[in-house]
Amino acid sequence: MGQGADPAASRAYSPAAQDSPFRDERTARDEAPQFVLPLVVRIERAEPPARTDALETAARAVLVMLSDERSVGSGEWAEAMRSWQDARIRKVVRRARGAEWRRAEALPGITVTGKSAEVRVFPPVPLDGWPKELARLQVSGTDLDDPEPPVDADPATPVLWLNPEVAMSAGKAMAQAGHGAQLAWWDLSDEDRAAWREAGFPLAVRTADPARWPGLTTSGLPLVRDAGFTEIAPGSCTVVADHPALRG
Question: Keywords in UniProt for this one (predicted)?
Answer without folding.
Answer: Hydrolase
